[in-house]
C-alpha cells in the first residue's frame, strides 16, 4: 500500500461530523437559484454601487458599511470587495461567507442609505441647475 496523498478525514462516516452541515448548505444553494426579482435587485445594487463609488471615492470614502443580520455587527466592505460579493451572488445564488474587517476606520465607510441620499442630492442639485438654465 502506498502513501496517502490527502489527509485522512477523522470524521469519515461519523454521524456527529461537524462539517456535515456544510454539505447540506451546498445542496440547498444549488437547488434554490435567485428569483428574477432578486436577480434584478442585485443588478440594481451593482449599478448603484458604481454611482456611489464615483461620487464618494473622491471624498475619501472607501466603501460601505452594512449591519449584519446574523451577528448584528457592522461589516465594512471596500468598493471592489462589495462588487465581487454581489457578482458572486449573481453567479452562485448565495452570498459569500464573510467576516468583519479587521480594525477598519468607520470614518471611511458610509451606509447604503447615506450613499443613496448623497447620490440623490447630487442628482437634484444638477437637475435644479439645468432647470434654471432652461428658463
Automatic annotation (TrEMBL):
It comes from Actinoplanes palleronii. Pfam families: DUF5319 (PF17252). InterPro entries: DUF5319. Residues 1-40 are annotated as: Disordered. This is DUF5319 domain-containing protein. Residues 20-35 have a biased composition (Acidic residues).
Amino acid at each position: 500500500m502506498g502513501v496517502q496523498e490527502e489527509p485522512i478525514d477523522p470524521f469519515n462516516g461519523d454521524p456527529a461530523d461537524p462539517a456535515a452541515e456544510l454539505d447540506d448548505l451546498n445542496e440547498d444553494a444549488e437547488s434554490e437559484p435567485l428569483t428574477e426579482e432578486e436577480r434584478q435587485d442585485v443588478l440594481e445594487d451593482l449599478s448603484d454601487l458604481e454611482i456611489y463609488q464615483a461620487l464618494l471615492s473622491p471624498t475619501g470614502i472607501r466603501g460601505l458599511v452594512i449591519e449584519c443580520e446574523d451577528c448584528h455587527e457592522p461589516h465594512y466592505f471596500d468598493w471592489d470587495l462589495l462588487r465581487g460579493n454581489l457578482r458572486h451572488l449573481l453567479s452562485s445564488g448565495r452570498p459569500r461567507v464573510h467576516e468583519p474587517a479587521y480594525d477598519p476606520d468607520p470614518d471611511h465607510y458610509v451606509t447604503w442609505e447615506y450613499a443613496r441620499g448623497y447620490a440623490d442630492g447630487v442628482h437634484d442639485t444638477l437637475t435644479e441647475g439645468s432647470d434654471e438654465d432652461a428658463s
